[in-house]
Amino acid sequence: MSNWSGAVKVEDFTGTLALNGSAFYSFRVPVRGTVSFILQSLKEGGVDSSTLVLVGFGVPRGTGCIASTPAGVSAKPSPQGATVLDPGIYCVQISDNGNLTAPATFALAIISPL
Asked: Which numeric CATH code is attached to 8-113?
């Protein structure tokens, strides 16, 4: 069951994505509900990019994140991935699968139930 009608929190995850690199952000889900992400921006060399990168949810493992079923997405203003998660600690990972031509800055928003 999703939790779109209830209260949500939005966490911002920004950084730089190296060529063929990845980055992740850990977050806490306090109650079962729908968690989604929005890749708000992706800029290669300071210029807006429509390049596809991989983004997916997972569980932190040591100093990394193992994302299950990452999706190829490009920056846009609406949710691009969603899943129902139980309470716990999760992560979202963004990766370049060889499509970037230069390191890219990104801004991701993670929306989860309160």
From this structure: 2.60.120.380
